[in-house]
Amino acid sequence: MRLSLLLLALLSVPSVFADNTIQISNAWINEAPPTVKVIAGYLTIKNISDKTLDLITASSPDFEKIEFHSTKMEDGIASMQKIDVIVIPASSEFSFSPGEYHLMLFNGKKALKEGDSVPLELTFSDGQTISIHAEVKRANITTDISTEHHHH
Amino acid sequence: MKNRVLTSFAIIVCFLVLGAGLGVYTSKYYRTDAAAKPEIEGLLWPNPKQIGPFTAIDHNGNPFGLEQLMGKWSFVFFGYTHCPDVCPITLSVLNQVYQKLAAENAVNNVQVIFVSVDPERDTKEQLASYVEYFNKEFIGVGGTGQQIASLGQQMGIVYYHGEKSSSGEYAVDHTASVFLIDPSGRWVALFSAPHQAEDLVNRLLAIQHFIDGQV
To answer: What are the pLDDT digits (tens) for B61-70?
Structure first.
């Protein structure tokens, strides 16, 4: 019992990977109705090195493929564009976040529910591959995309 | 030093008094002059467009047309279920709007309608599971490509289907604004993305108040 609680506590901590050059934080996947075949994932990558790093690929055993997409809003029309690589300049941060950039996760191999943990592998231009887990969440979008936090 | 503190204090007091005065003035202004268009972003007044008859099918397979818009305030959003980012965001926000209105007992005459611009993939079963996931009361609307195009045309909706990938996937670019139709079928407001629940609630209440005052 106690062990499972501890495990649960560990799982609920936002997955953070840190080495000398890259930190990944706040990785999550937006839970979707079971019939939806493409869903979105979000995370923040911090490049703490003094060189530009490119995020080249992302993959997961739970999905057929993963692409990087940006959402553009022009004249009220939303469109998605595939991006080949995500360029992260030295000492800067890149966020995949709702309405801006997302990981497009295609054809999930199993039904995912809030609380599930999805393994992701991210490969960077310097050759390193980082393994993280993204938590499946049911987004409370207001608090996620708003810069203001209202508490009543 | 003490003087400076006093001076800034006096300035702040001045601003507060001015602000309060302005507040009283504007609230009086709105109360006494119901005919003036209030400053609500997205309000289409004085010439809201009357929606004409249209035919479509709801997610239960029932006919959905202009009659289903009458007598209620309708938030209408166009999207598609294979849309991973903008559509779930917007429907989550609209769910929050619905919850907030429900908490204030102001939801009985409000409905949320999700119109699919992807008739090829969005069957009524697909639409049903999609809208009900966000809120059991939401209405999914589909139909033939022509039916959706004709409804979309009435509201100036733009959408185009992207190229199919080798695996048959495609994206659909689409208008991401939320439309507000009043109980007599008039398109009275257009809310541009990004949307915030509290803001949409406030704008809806202000518009309801204004339009009810026009009768």
So the answer is: 999 999 999 9
The rounded percent of chain B whose pLDDT value lies above 70 is: 83
pTM of the model: 0.80
**Which of chain B's residues have a Cβ under 8 Å away from the Cβ of A67?**
none
Mean pLDDT of A48-53: 94
Q: State whether A99 and B177 contact (CB < 8 Å).
A: no
A-chain CB neighbours of B125 within 8 Å are: 35
Establish whether this prediction's ipTM goes over 0.90: no
- Judged against a pLDDT cut of 60, whether residue B102 lies above it is answered with yes
Is B198 near chain A, with CB under 8 Å? yes
Nearest to B129 among A33, A99, A141 (CB): A33
Q: What is the per-residue DSSP string for chain B?
A: -HHHHHHHHHHHHHHHHHHHHHHHHHHHHHHH-TTSPP--TTB--S-PEEPPP-EEEETTS-EEEGGGGTTSEEEEEEE-TT--SHHHHHHHHHHHHHHHHHHTT--TTEEEEEEES-TTT--HHHHHHHHHHH-TT-EEEE--HHHHHHHHHHTT--EEE----TTS---EEEE-PEEEE-TTSEEEEEEPSS--HHHHHHHHHHHHHHHHTT-
Residues of A in contact with B177 (CB under 8 A): 76
